[in-house]
């Protein structure tokens, strides 16, 4: 059961959808597709000379978050495997299945449509990771779930004890980071960008309307103009890993 492509999905409130689209197209050096969906709630960020790997969805009146979409050859088989491992089906739309992980994080199974060309690094950064924040009581089961479901991906401890990385084979554009929280609360997710120079990327994002929330050694938490949080991380934007 091969995963042939991945998407990072940016979920933002409908009233801030335009602001989200303007900011994230500038950050990723992309242009918008036509809006689609029953309520025009979906848009794809289209790069030049490569296949898209980022989409934005207008959601209800909340700050929004993120989720990962996994493109597979056999959606029913993949969804059934996820359910056997502890996931639940939220919506089966035939060509798309929305699922919820054991810890409660949404993700989707989509059809693979031949995508194969990963977008390049943009001004020293690359949006390449969905980070799922997980309560301590659910963390070990969530790591086991994703490590088993994403067969063929490399599952390994992160740079700190509270992190676990599930890394796809070369060529797939979006990987998964699992983060153990210090408190019991529902699972949520945000986007991470790998940055050759976090300070320079931060300045660029602030020029585009983002704001700093907090800073830690190795990463900076930002808030985009649509109110969603994301992180700038000091990882190599080409490899996704930590140099040295």
Structural class, from secondary structure content? alpha+beta
* Average predicted local confidence, pLDDT: 96
Q: Roughly how many Å is the radius of gyration?
A: 17 Å
List the total number of helices.
4
Largest sheet: 8 strands, mixed
Say how many strands there are. Answer: 16
Low-confidence stretches: none
Strands side by side in the biggest sheet = 2-3-4-1-5-8-7-6
Order of helices and strands: EHEEEEHEEEEHEEEEHEEE
Estimate what percentage of residues fall within beta strands.
Answer: 35-45%
Distance between the termini: 33 Å
Considering DSSP H and I runs of 4 or more, what fraction of the residues is helical?
A: 10-25%
Quaternary structure: single chain
Shape: globular
Which key phrases capture this entry?
244 residues; globular; single chain; eight-stranded mixed sheet; alpha+beta
Structure description:
This protein has 244 residues and is α+β, with helices and mostly antiparallel strands. Strands 2-3-4-1-5-8-7-6 form an 8-stranded mixed β-sheet, covered by helices on one side. Strands 10-11-12-9-13-16-15-14 form an 8-stranded mixed β-sheet. Strand 15 and strand 16 (229-233) form a beta hairpin. It is 19% helix and 39% strand. The chain has helices spanning 17-28, 75-84, 136-149, 198-207, and strands at residues 3-13, 31-32, 42-46, 54-59, 66-72, 88-92, 97-100, 106-111, 125-134, 154-157, 163-167, 175-180, 188-195, 211-216, 219-223, 229-233.
Give a concise summary.
The protein is α+β, with helices and mostly antiparallel strands and 244 residues long. The protein has helices spanning 17-28, 75-84, 136-149, 198-207; strands spanning 3-13, 31-32, 42-46, 54-59, 66-72, 88-92, 97-100, 106-111, 125-134, 154-157, 163-167, 175-180, 188-195, 211-216, 219-223, 229-233.
């Amino acid at each position: 059961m091969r995963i042939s492509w991945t998407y990072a999905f940016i979920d933002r409130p409908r009233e801030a959808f335009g602001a989200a689209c303007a900011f994230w197209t500038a950050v990723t050096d992309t242009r918008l597709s036509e809006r689609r969906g029953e309520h025009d709630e979906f848009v794809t960020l289209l790069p030049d000379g490569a296949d898209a790997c980022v989409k934005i969805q207008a959601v209800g009146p909340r700050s929004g978050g993120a989720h990962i979409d996994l493109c597979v050859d056999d959606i029913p088989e993949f969804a059934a495997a996820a359910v056997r491992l502890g996931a639940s089906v939220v919506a089966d739309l035939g060509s798309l299945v929305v699922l919820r992980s054991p810890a409660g994080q949404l993700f989707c199974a989509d059809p693979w449509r031949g995508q194969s060309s990963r977008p390049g690094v943009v001004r020293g950064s690359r949006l390449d990771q969905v980070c799922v924040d997980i309560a301590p009581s659910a963390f070990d089961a969530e790591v086991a779930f994703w490590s088993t479901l994403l067969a063929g991906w490399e599952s390994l401890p992160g740079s700190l004890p509270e992190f676990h990385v599930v890394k796809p084979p070369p060529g797939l554009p979006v990987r998964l980071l699992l983060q153990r929280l210090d408190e019991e609360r529902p699972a949520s997710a945000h986007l991470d960008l790998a940055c050759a120079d976090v300070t320079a990327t931060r300045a660029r994002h602030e020029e585009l309307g983002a704001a700093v929330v907090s800073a830690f050694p190795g990463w900076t938490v930002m808030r985009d103009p649509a109110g969603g949080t994301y992180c700038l991380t000091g990882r190599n934007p080409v490899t996704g890993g930590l140099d040295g």
